[in-house]
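Homework help thread (please don't just give me the answer)

Our assignment gives two proteins as sequence + structure token strings and asks us to describe the second one. The first is just a warm-up. Here they are:
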Amino acid sequence: MEIGVYHNLTIDRQREPGLFLSDENGEEVLLPNRYIPENFEIGDSISVFVYLDNEGRPVATTDSPFVTKNDFAVLRCNQVNNFGAFLEWGLVKELFCPFKEQVVKMVKGEWYLVYCYLDETTNRLVASSKTNQFLNNSVVKVEEGEEVELIVSYPSELGMNVIINNEHLGLIFNDEIFKDLSIGDRIKGYIKKIRPDNKITVTLQKPGHKSIEPNADHILTVLKRENGFLPLTDKSSPEEIQSKLELSKKSFKKAIGTLYKKRLIDLREDGIYLN
């Protein structure tokens, strides 16, 4: 029975330690008494997460972990010993991160972006903060302009590194970042450019003219929220525009032009008014 994922299993029988659950192949796993639902019948189907207990035996739980096998999450370090760190992930047994899988030595109470994987040697789920090793850009499965799922990874001098679709490494340049980003944030983005060496740059706005309409809608939404007025003009600084709208000045001016042509707004010396 696969470790580290959810299974829909059949309640086969009840014994002193708990319920024994089985899959279509007849493989069994124990659901300890502490997780038994109040109302059940033999033969019912139940969704459980399967992992190894402290003695290395497969066990089921109805608790939901913060991360499953082959996925990323930001987890808190609960303790550190001579072998590594132990992370809080929503289950009774903490998730182990050995020293060799830590970018920097983990500290109790701090939070870290990690990847959860199955250690083939021990058959146990472990964590690694060396997330780049689980990403592959040798074969790029995205296209320029495509909308993608991003996980904010770590900052660099050029910008913010991101994980694309849980598969590729990408970069958002500093001049493309118009809102606060924290490590582990899950956001949508767009593939801006794929270089010949398969390095990928990402933008948080739809490239080119495709971004005008969504940005215009965003400005309208903010105007309505602000009682029909924004103290912004084409002379406003990029910092002011970023603070109020999370847009670049270039994107702001394009969107304002669209709204003005449609007579949805009025542009005055002191700012933008909603018509």
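The one we have to describe:
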Amino acid sequence: MATILIVEDEAAINELVKRNLQLVGHHCTSVMDGKSALEEIANRAYDLVVLDIMLPELDGFDVYRQLGGIPTIFLTARSSLPDRIKGLSMGADDYLVKPFEMMELLARVEAVLRRTQKSKSVFEAGHVKIDFDSRQVYCNGQRVEFTPKEYDLLEVLVHNRNIALSRERLLELVWGYDYEGDTRTIDVHIQKLRKKLSWENAIQTVYKLGYRLEIST
């Protein structure tokens, strides 16, 4: 997992981002202003910076100019096209506008880390091993066959492990917004994952919501 610096002056958002990134296994440090961000960068190596633009001391654009090429996701309430163009043209890896869904931030973090090769291409938990590059899954050393949607669902659960996901959200992430089926599709696929991987206890049912892959990181 990656070492991530969160630079956000709204305490509630700062804590929410930090908590969710830590839930999926990342190591996080958070600061509230641009000057503190640069001090952190000078004293520790980071794989990724989640950076607000409207900050005390120095704004996010000024901070970014001094990051020395560290992968960066701008996280900001400044949604105008010129601001987005400016952030991306400076070389930032992504630009996410507030308000945002935490699942989207987690997905964008994962995508940036994949591109910068800071995200492991292999995931292991107990008797289960997943090779994301080849989309191959092993249980107790034996390869397990999955349908494309079973694998996609498994990958979503792994990347969002320890976070409760509603059935509707899982449908959106795996089947897409235009899927016309119902949420029972999720239940059927979850049962198949549990059986194939002996994850009856790992994939927890969240009452009246959906599911959570519960794995220590």
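TA reply:
I won't write it for you, but here's a hint about the kind of observation we're looking for: The chain is about 40% helix and 20% strand.
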